[in-house]
Transcriptional regulator, TetR family (Catenulispora acidiphila), 200 residues
Amino acid sequence: MAEQDRTRVPRGEARDRIVAAATELFGRQGYEATTTRQIVEAAQVTKGALYHWFSSKEELLTSIYRELLAEQTSRLKTIAAADTPADARLHLAVTDLFAHMDDHAEPLTVWARSMHLVAGEHAAAVRAERRRYQHLFQDLIEEGQKAGVFRADVAASVITNTFLSSVVQIHRWFRPDGPLTRRELGTQMVALFLDGVRVG
């Protein structure tokens, strides 16, 4: 596509193209090996369009993850606010988390493999968003402990961090061509986690 043709891409569509192209390239050849020029070529947009939306490749990577994390946080907030027992809400929360991860496996795997390369304000913004999710999750655990449905011999912070840390590390050992699909893996991890946290 010629440079003059690329300028005709609507701004919103250009952003979607950039995100899709970056996600595919980061996943296929790695974040560090991918250049902004390659992203621009794959997205068929101008370099100006890329820098209109993202100040750097680092911001592009971070934005992809932050949008998904914000979506996870919003979904958890809705689930946690429901008028149902804490154990039912926790079951729905962890099941929904794995469903969301399955729906967005490629960009979330890209982030998990590349997050150690992000620093400064971008890393701080991610940490802040992750803390919001973590606090909502921990509050739900504490509510269940007070209601007597979750074991209280382990601190809610330990339960929360152990579970969420295990989720973050899935990319290190899960193989798409292995014996389990992502959905099947999620079902087994949900069962293992809930059996470990429930009283009795």
Summary: Confidence is low (pLDDT under 50) at residues 1-7. Residues 3-53 form a domain with the Arc Repressor Mutant, subunit A fold (CATH 1.10.10.60).
